[in-house]
Amino acid sequence: MVDILDATLPSDTSSLVSDLGTIGRETRAKVNELISNLTAGLTELTLDSGDTVIASSQLSDASIEVIWLTGDAGSNTIENITGCSEGKQIIIRFVDDNVTIADDNAKIALNSAPYPTDFVAQAGDMLALVNKGGDGSGTDGVWYELWRKLEVGS
Q1: Domain that residue 10 falls in
Q2: Rounded to whole angstroms, how far apart are CA atoms 86 and 130?
Q3: 46/1 same-domain check
Q4: How far apart are the first and last CA of the chain?
Q5: Looking at the structure, do residues 97 and 133 belong to the same domain, yes or no?
Q6: Are residues 75 and 122 in the same domain?
Q7: Residue 30 confidence (pLDDT)
Q8: How far is residue 153's CA from residue 34's CA, in Å, rounded to a whole number?
Q9: 107 exposed, middle or buried (CB, 10 Å; 0-12, 13-18, 19+)?
Q10: What average pLDDT values come out for the chain (154 residues) when binned by 10 residues?
Q11: For residue 99, which of 129, 117, 120 has the smallest C-alpha distance?
Q12: Around Cβ 115, how many Cβ atoms within 10 Å?
């Protein structure tokens, strides 16, 4: 875990000029550690008939994951994304019109009004979510919507 950067340093009143080199090195080390912990992944995922959950075993261990998601020939309503840790971000690009994301505010919380309004995706739509409270094993946390992009026209 990365120590929190001290935004108060250097200080005009308490930092000596001789401290600036040390402060710079410590800050650079913390920034480098933060950057090294960022990873990205790409997953192509096709849901089976009746799938309602995307499990972490279907995804990579990357902290930011892009998912090209295809529904089955019928339709799928995703009600939960399980087994991921807090801070993981997923960006879903919907390949077809066969996937709906359920908005229940307990597992997936979408930015839609009136609540609850499920997201009925069309081919080309994108949805970004971030996990809050997941521990990677028994606690799934809540997936909060960061943004969405709707495909307009073809």
Answers
A1: 1-37
A2: 8
A3: no
A4: 45
A5: yes
A6: yes
A7: 78
A8: 40
A9: middle
A10: 64 71 80 81 94 95 95 90 96 96 95 89 97 95 97 76
A11: 120
A12: 11
Number of structural domains found in the chain = 2
Residue type, position 145, single letter: E
For residue 12, the model assigns a pLDDT of 67
The tokens for 108 are 């997936």
- Tell me what pLDDT residue 31 has: 81
Question: Does residue 154 belong to any structural domain of this protein?
Answer: no
Q: Give 90: exposed, middle or buried? Use CB within 10 Å, 0-12, 13-18, 19+.
A: buried
Amino acid identity of 61?
A: D
Angle made by CA atoms 36, 41, 47, in degrees to the nearest 5: 155
Closest C-alpha among 2, 1, 19 to residue 10 = 19
Contact call for residues 94 and 126 (beta carbons, < 8 A)? yes
Tokens of 31: 């920034």
Encoding tokens for residue 3?
Answer: 């120590």
Instruction: Give the separation between CA 75 and CA 24, rounded to whole angstroms.
Output: 54
